[in-house]
Fold this protein.
Amino acid sequence: GGRTFAVCKFRSMRVDAEKFGAQYATENDPRITRTGSFTRKTRIDELPQLWNVLRGEMSLIGPRPERPEFVLKLIDKVDGYARRHAIKPGITGLAQIFLPPDVDVDSVRRKIIYDLVYLKYAGFWMDLQIAICTVLRMFGLCWGIGPYVTGLRRRVDRIRASSRLRVNKQPKKKQLEKMPCPSINQLVGVAEDHSN
């Protein structure tokens, strides 16, 4: 983790989408093409990243890679963000199963909780659960169903219940803006509470 590399993806936005600089995609973003909307919804745009996995730059499961333009800002603004670079990034991850795509720094702060939980508890069984959840989403099932079907929701809830960290269950999109962002002490608490 922590290395810069070119991520392979199918183009889902217009060629001039970032003529004013790097920016997060938004809901109903006018820069996304009609075909791009389908490939994003089904996660097909991520499939070329299997080439990155074969080259040893990524793994199948892990925290999602972020563009260098955002990383330096996020390390300054999001406590604990640099810790997610301890392992290779993945095509899919725990944060992607539980939360929608990032739209701003606050959404990154919410996802860092799941990235740090994954860093602590990564293993074959959790990776298998995340992979199954990802496949279910690719086939159009609601993003909340997979974690219940695989038992991943119950497992993550147990981890959170046994730590000082409290986060609402899967939020609706309107609730995301109102959710408080955790402090670094809460995030570190997840790892420390379970290292004993």
User: Anything to note?
Assistant: DSSP finds ten helices and two strands in the chain. The two ends are 26 Å apart (CA to CA). Strands lie at 59-61, 90-92. Residues 165-196 have pLDDT under 50 and may be disordered.
